[in-house]
Description:
The protein is an alpha/beta fold.
Amino acid sequence: MSSVPKVDDVTVTTMITVDRFNTLLNSISTTDCYFSVTLHIPDDEELVSNMEKLTKFIDKNFVVLKSKTNIHLVIDKYPRQLNYLRNVARFFSKTEIIFPLDVDFIVNKSFLKNFKSNEFVKSKLSIGNSVFVLPALEFQNEYVNTKFNDFPQTKEEVISMFNNSLTVFHGLKNRGHSSTNYEKWLGTDRIYQIVPDTLRYEPYALFNTTGVPYSDERFTGYGANKVAWWYEIYLSGVEFYVLPNDFVIHCFHEYPDIRIEE
């Protein structure tokens, strides 16, 4: 992959901590998108140890990282300022079109190819007043340890697994993703427009950075920071569409105690 992006290339923007290096590698390995990654390391007694982990990670994976991944290091004494970290990754994106995504999600391998071949999507994004949602999925309880190499890569595979091993991220009744209209998505091969019908909507979607506001850095920690951003996007007049053949799947992992406390 060239280190010089084309006009229709996409950058995945995300943020990580030192315990998510392997998860990041999984994400990078499944797509040809560029990656702009904010790494937060607390300025505490483990700073030196964590910096050594970062150095080892880069040295070991330099060939994989060098052509398409930028890592932006944030060191401070404060808890993670999530919207600030998101904005750093966005600011340093190599492309105008970005796809903000939590690092523990995997995008289907054909996503970038599908995007580049869709003139309607590229045209709408070039104008800058549209976002395109990728439905979010997760494995049900007894299948949560499915290896990412065994994740479905086509919509046909998703349909065959849906309501068996695979389901809507956080459940069908979760307001954070209900506006995507999964029932419609499963039965169509066409892009469709949606209107967010809840203040809790927080999809995973790609957009042109020229038409979408940055995340509000007054919100810190966990709880409604991303929801507030998406609602601001909706109120600004941006149109929401759902891509019919692309999706993201959550990679299950245990949350450390510090995350639970946050």
